[in-house]
Each structure stands twice: as C-alpha cells, then as structure tokens.
Design brief:
TIM Barrel; two-stranded antiparallel ribbon; binds iron/sulfur cluster; alpha/beta; nine-stranded mixed sheet; 28% helix; 15% strand
Length: 298
C-alpha cells in the first residue's frame, strides 16, 4: 500500500458517545474555536431531550460506557439539565462548558441526580489563561471573571471540575503557567484543582488566526507503525449531531466525517486525511478526561 494514502482507523468498540448537544451555537466567540462557534453560527442545531433519549436507547445494546456533551455552549440548550439527568440512568457523563452561564439551581439539581445515580457527572470548564489579561484576549472581554464564577458555583455544590486550557504559550513556559493556574484556582476556593492542557486545533476560527495546517501536516501509514491507536478518539467514539453521526467532535464541519444516520451505520473505519488528525497523532487523548500526553516523535 503506498504511503501517500492516509491510514484508516477501525472503531475497536464504541466506548464513548458524544453529543453535539448545542450544535455550533455559543454565547462566546473565541478566537481559537476550532468549529467557529458563536451566537450566530447555527450550521448545527440543538439536540432535543427526545433525540438524546432515542440515542441513549440506541447506544445501550452497543455497550457504550461513557457519554460526553459538547457544543457550542451546552447550557444554552434549554433541555441540558434534563438531558444530563436522563443520561445518568445509562452511564457516566461529562459536559464541556465555558462556565459562564451556569445557574445555581441547575447545579443543585445535577448534584442531586448524580448522588442518586450509580454513575458520575464530570464538568470540564474551558479557561485559556490564569488571569483576565491572559484569558480575555482569546475568549472575550469579561470571560475570565465569569468562568471563575462558574468554577466557584461548581465547587460550592461539590463538583470538582476539570479546567481545560488550550496551550497558547511556549513549552518552556508550561510549568510556570500551570503553577499560576493552580494558584488562581486555589485563590478562588478550588483547593485541589484538576487541569488539562490541550493543543490548539488549527481549524475554524483558529485556522484564520494562524495559518491552518500545511499540506505536509498529515498522518501517513508509516507514522502509524507501532502507534497505539487507542489514543485517538475515533478509535472508540462517535458523535451525534442534528445532521447525523460523525466520526469525532473535531471534524463535524468536514462532510467526509459524516458516517450516516444510525450508530450501526457509523461503525465503518475512517481515513485520517485531515490536518487535525496530525494533532491527534502528536498529542493523543485530546478529548478524553485524562491529561494529554505530549509525543516528541513526529
Ligand atoms: S471555544 Fe468553546 S466557548 Fe469558545 S466559542 Fe468555541 S464553543 Fe464557545
Ligand atoms: S481528528 Fe482526531 S479523532 Fe478525529 S478522525 Fe482525525 S485522528 Fe480521529
């Protein structure tokens, strides 16, 4: 097989099911958003509670182990709280939020639902700097203070959110930046903060901000020799959108990533032919709750 053809990744087992629950609608317009979400981007719409329920039932016989909710901002979906309550009947759930629109009563309901469930509910809150000066130029004026308020609300009801930050600093500064993040979060009352650093994905708004991927930044068959494909989200996940099932939450704007309407149809292998696949190869575990590992060998 020539090395110019992209390698394909088989779905080993559908362990994780993602929901693009608020489509591409977000209250923020971050400069690095890899799917260019904004208050006006309705290219993908909200999923309703009934749609999510149907998908949860479709997923049960397939042995899905965990559920993830993303957008856009999931909590713009008016069904978000009942959606999470319903999901906790099926398995552990994680919701990715910017933390700026959380309401105390929603979090109290969710804490009670988690306490009554066999399964855990995790929050990931995106904050891209340890201060307004470092965060707001990327995520928008006033967003640092609002996100920290969201973290405080989560901690107050007993959640331990995973703070996710996109790496916009150099490798040499990493330790210092992480230290400042931890200090800021402790000052906000989050005693033992959990932090996940993500590489930027050069798609959407981020591709306009930077240069996007070069043609040479692609995964080749040779690079995959000996590579642990379980590091890739597409090896064990699929994402539900209002336009069908896609291979992963990173590529929903790519038509070739739409694999069909049903989960059974969407089990086909996928050819890693996008620049974003190169970032997944380099860093691995981008979308899981675990910390990203940095790979030095490209
Ligand atoms: S990065 Fe997150 S918070 Fe920012 S615009 Fe995109 S979806 Fe919204
Ligand atoms: S972007 Fe990442 S998760 Fe998506 S298909 Fe490519 S390698 Fe897989």
């Amino acid at each position: 097989m020539p090395d110019t053809l992209p390698p394909s990744v088989e779905l080993s087992h559908l362990d994780h099911l993602w929901f693009q629950v608020s489509g591409t609608l977000c209250n923020l317009t971050c400069h690095h958003c890899f799917i260019s979400c904004s208050p006006k981007n309705d290219s993908f719409g909200h999923l309703t509670l009934d749609e999510v329920k149907q998908r949860l039932e479709e997923s049960a016989p397939l042995g899905v182990k965990e559920f993830y909710f993303t957008g856009g901002e999931p909590f713009l979906n008016r069904d978000m709280v009942p959606i999470l309550v319903e999901t906790l009947k099926f398995g552990p759930a994680t919701v990715l939020t910017n933390g700026t629109v959380l309401k105390d009563e929603w979090l109290e309901t969710l804490r009670a639902a988690e306490a009554a469930s066999l399964y855990s509910l995790e929050f990931r809150v995106s904050i891209d700097g340890f201060s307004p000066e470092t965060n707001d130029p990327i995520r928008g004026e006033g967003t640092f203070v609002r996100a920290i308020e969201g973290v405080k609300k989560l901690v107050a009801v007993g959640f331990l959110p995973i703070i996710t930050a996109t790496r916009t600093w150099s490798d040499e500064d990493e330790q210092q930046v992480v230290g400042q993040f931890v200090a800021t979060l402790k000052l906000a009352g989050y005693e033992r903060p959990r932090l996940k650093i993500l590489p930027p994905l050069q798609l959407g708004a981020e591709a306009e901000r930077t240069q996007g991927y070069r043609e040479t930044e692609r995964v080749t068959r040779r690079m995959m020799n000996g590579f642990d494909t379980s590091q890739l989200v597409c090896e064990h996940s699929r994402v539900i959108t209002d336009k069908g099932v896609y291979v992963c939450p990173i590529l929903i704007e790519s038509t070739d990533a739409n694999l069909g309407d049903s989960l059974n149809e969407a089990t086909q292998p996928y050819a890693l032919n996008h620049g974003a696949c190169y970032t997944c190869f380099q860093y691995g575990a981008i979308c899981s709750n675990a910390s990203s590992a940095v790979r030095g060998d490209k």
